[in-house]
Design a protein that fits this description.
Number of strands: 15
Number of helices: 26
Helix content: 40-55%
CATH superfamily of the largest domain: P-loop containing nucleotide triphosphate hydrolases
Bound molecules: adenosine-5'-triphosphate, magnesium ion
Strand content: 5-15%
Largest sheet: 5 strands, parallel
Radius of gyration: 25 Å
Distance between the termini: 35 Å
Strand order of the largest sheet: 2-3-4-1-5
Number of domains: 3
Amino acid sequence: MPIPFYPPHLRSLFTDRERELDRLQQATADLAAGRPRHLALFGLRRIGKTLLLLEHTARLLEAAPTGPVRPVYVDFEELVTSPELFSRRYVGLVTFWALTQGEGEIEAFLTPTALLGGPAAGLRCVAQTLAAMENARDDPATQVTLALDFPEKLAQELDCRLLLLVDEFTEFAVLGNYPSVRRPWHLFRAAMQRHGRLGYVVAASAINAMKAMIQEGDSPLFLQFEMMEVSLFPPDATLALAERVLGDTPSPGVGRQLHRLTGGHPFYIHAVATRLSGLAPSPADLQPEDVSRAFVLEALNRRGQIYHYCRYLYDVSLRRARGYGILKAILQVLAEEEGLTLSELARRIRKGASTTRSYLRALQEVDLVVEDGGEYFYRDPVLRYWVGAITRGIEVDPSTSRATLAPLLADLEAERFRLTTELGRAREAGVRDLVRSFAGQTVEGAWLGLSGPFRLPTFHRVAPYRSPDGQIEVDALAEDGEQWAVELKWRGKAAGKKELAALLRKAQALSARPWFISRSGFTPAARAYAAEHDILISTRADLEKLEKHLCRTAR
Ligand SMILES: Nc1ncnc2c1ncn2[C@@H]1O[C@H](COP(=O)(O)OP(=O)(O)OP(=O)(O)O)[C@@H](O)[C@H]1O
Ligand SMILES: [Mg+2]
């Protein structure tokens, strides 16, 4: 049963995400059993949050169209305008989904008159809510509250539970621009407290805004949601998506190159794979070099999807932040060389440290730049590549000769590019995936700073961890019989004793075994400290060996 919100051509490409879907399924089952939980999906732009919401919606409808839990998919980006319009349309949309499972004619639900005269004629709560809204005509905050409470009333009347899948959730903040509403999140929080038949799954592309909303103590939504990261694809999912797009399995070399250049980002994989399909008569004939060519054509040609997206990201993000020119300068400097510290950056753009810090903060707020251990990086390596090329005036089109493309293709093979795709969040997600693939394999202890062979545990749950009070944070907490607390540092200098001691303290608080991974290895003192305190340690080379070994034994 296709839902118009999720066209079949999109669904036919849907790949992977089984773990995330399992968690959504679990939350749905808990809601059915009367134990509502709320989830917040976050992740890079275009990583697949919307598709994940739609896929879960579709599966839920297929399994039980009028089951105990009915899905309601709403996109706040379209819905949240003025308080009055939002309130009425929210009531309409919720009713639409609850009654037609997202399939019917939506127009009949969008205005109060149409709604009352048509599909919702017999529903008491609809008439009551709309009448109450009418009475509160001069009080937009009350209208919003009535709207937020409406799904609960509807669920009561229909004797069901509603799973509200809210996309672009952070857009709700727009209502705060209306002085009469002022504090929309307080209204939302207060409404949630009154609900027992509703489960929320919210998603948004603004990573920082979303994290701040859910994890910061002074936010009204503090701890109301469990965070769920939508991460980059592992290599096998990259290959699976390419296979769907191409209609046939490409060679492993092609899959590897695709994963390396896109970092496992599904939107980029899709764009490059689509371009690839025109480059060889059959997918089996494709070579890794074709992937590089397709990547360059997608990223550096004005018609390319990646070009288009990077341009959008760059312009839109910078427009939202103040100090356009300086921000651009910082991004250009980081495109040339990443991992610079505040003072290094300040020197290159010829500004003072405190000015530079505030500009960097602006770039972090719009999710373009991340800080790790005092060094600054692009959040998205492909954007970094694009900025670097565009700044140098490099553009190509499909008729560009092979000779002109050659240096660009060679550039992609450079260590510099490889390194960047491994950085930051992408790398952390990669390590979590690695830990998830632990299943009792025996590996060389040396890869973890031990001697002799070592048997890996099997974990049930692996996720980034942050304690409710925000005091303890690790890149991964792996749990089952035994627990591991994993920390990853991807910097230019060796990790020291102090950093290991900090992880050890956190691990002790979590009753977990500490594992510290450092790209640039460890100081001798740190190594001695690790041995003494039973801290597992790995360098980048160790990690690669471990990855390779597990990848091989998995097949
Ligand atoms: N699981 C997936 N399987 C196949 N393709 C995917 C998947 N996830 C994402 N994609 C590809 O990436 C594109 C972007 O996905 P989607 O719109 O769901 O991302 P998003 O995280 O909601 O983005 P935004 O931040 O812009 O809202 C899709 O159109 C599709 O091409
Ligand atoms: Mg989306």
